[in-house]
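Recap from last week: sequence in, structure out.
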Amino acid sequence: MSTSVIIGDDGLARPAWAATDPMMRAYYDTEWGMPVHDEHGVFERLSLEAFQSGLSWATILRKRENFRTAFSNFNPEVIEGFTECQVQELLGNAGIIRNRAKILATIKNAKATIALRQDGGLAQFIWSFQPDSTPTPRTMDEVPTTSVESLALSKALKKRGFSFVGPTTMFALMEALGLVDTHLIDSHRRGSSGIWPA
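Predicted structure tokens:
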């Protein structure tokens, strides 16, 4: 067994980041890396990954329900119409990350998501960047933070009017959505997406 997995009290192997905090463990065991193909699910994750930029994912996950409330359950049609008054309300909302640039990016990205519908939609667009192979890390040091595909996706989304979609953020999104499987080889979740073999 790799030193990068920790055996939990349930006998299952997880990476250190998902091994102790119950919230992170539940997220790792049930959500992270599982395929998401609907626009709403992809847009929510894209938005949360943008807010996570420079912060820990645990911080975002703890505030996820607050984000859903503040951003109308991540409905692009509603968000694209947010006014400056609503932006100010969001900046005063202690339940979310109060970052003006990221709030404005979410509004901009909602508009870009709606525009993408004429070309198959956000989910199909992002999944078109799925690579031919996935990393096979044994330790956390072997987990990449970017890829050729995440760089290409970043550039393509920026051309489509999206913000806060850098290559590292897009690689994290690809991991979360299941486009790549970066579960450690010895993790009990390796291969659980059904897309990549264990």
